[in-house]
Amino acid sequence: MAQKSIASCDCPRHADCVNSTHCTCKHGYTSMHGEEFFTFPLATCKDTDECKPPISIYCGANAACQNTDGGFYCHCNPGYKLLSGAPQFQNSSENTCQKATSSATTKAMNDMSTSPALEPSQLQRVVETFESLLANKTLLGTGEKEKVASWATGVLQTLETDALDTALKSPEQKIQKIHNSTVAIETRVVTDNCSEEQIFSLNTHMNSVDIHCNDVVQGNIQGPTAIALISYSSLGNIINATFFEESNEKDRVYLNSEVVSAAIGPQRNKSLSKSVILSFQHVK
């Protein structure tokens, strides 16, 4: 018997309607079969555990990730506290966990087993490097389009290179993923021959790329090859402010998707034999 499609905008809990024809799970949730868009009326959206692989949010030294329904937060390990005194924070860039020195805290440390700090993965270190570049407000404050464009290009190229290098250094990890409030990265390593019509699909922040395996393998190159897809949550705001602020209010222009880039390595600047499909999620 054929499956009945979902009626217009009759989506399950934790899902939104798309174009009055399909449903998609909200951020922090995944459909029961893993599809980005679905029409099956009995489909459900389950919580995504951002604290476990393949995402494994890194909260920084002396801290741990805590999953919640539809989200997550970071907190300092027992015996440590944020300089602000707040009970939680969002990502490693906000981590100021310091060893507590009060007598009450010292007693608590003696009574509790301190959780070991999570060792950052190489991909997590790549993200931290990007965040440090983003935190440099000196150049962005000038508002000069040419300088900001050059800076943004350099950031994209640096992150692409670092993501590919990280993937190729650990070819046994076929797929690596990480995301936080500023950037999302997915990498895939290919170590075997491709089937004739094999397509790889990578997804970050509801953006995706579909590419033929042969274009990732790059002919007869020796050793593993990799592809990286990167979505930048924060670069769009910088570009909007710098490039579009002079537009007339009548003809208001804005960037309606995240900035997204994809790269193949170790060889770069190679022509592709088949079409590559990039899909972008609208911001508004």
Structural description of this entry:
Its main location: membrane. Keywords: Calcium, Cell membrane, Disulfide bond, EGF-like domain, G-protein coupled receptor, Glycoprotein, Membrane, Receptor, Repeat, Signal, Transducer, Transmembrane, Transmembrane helix. With 284 residues, the protein is of the alpha+beta class. The chain folds into three domains: 1-48, Laminin (Ribbon), CATH 2.10.25.10; 63-111, Laminin; 122-279, Sandwich (Chondroitinase Ac, Chain A, domain 3), CATH 2.60.220. The chain contains six helices and 15 strands. The chain has helices at 103-111, 122-134, 137-140, 145-169, 213-217, 235-243; strands spanning 15-18, 22-25, 29-31, 45-47, 63-68, 71-76, 80-81, 98-99, 175-179, 183-190, 199-204, 207-212, 225-232, 259-265, 277-279. The strands form six sheets. The chain has a four-stranded antiparallel beta sheet. Helix 2 (122-134) runs antiparallel to helix 4 (145-169). It is globular, with a radius of gyration of 22 Å.
